[in-house]
Write a structure and sequence with these properties.
There is one protein chain. By secondary structure, this protein is mostly helical. The chain has one domain. It is built from three helices and no strands. The N terminus is likely disordered.
């Protein structure tokens, strides 16, 4: 399932970036010991590879947010 990290909530809003980052921060830092999500965000401003890595992580965050939103609607 392809998910946009800026997926709509249905009411015209978008996921808050801070919320999305909170959904992936711990897993990112576990997968990349010695790095923080902030490190990646800084590098993404000038590195194409890091931009892609950040995009991929934010897609994971979007999928997690969408799944959590679906559970709340039930």
């Amino acid at each position: 399932m392809k998910t946009n990290s800026r997926q709509s909530l249905g009411s015209g809003g978008t996921w808050d970036r801070t919320y999305l980052e909170s959904l992936i921060r711990e897993d990112f830092e576990r997968c990349h010991p010695g790095e923080t999500l902030e490190d990646l965000k800084r590098r993404a401003s000038f590195s194409r590879e890091d931009r892609g890595l950040l995009r991929d992580w934010m897609l994971v965050a979007g999928a997690r947010a969408a799944a959590a939103h679906q559970v709340k609607e039930r």
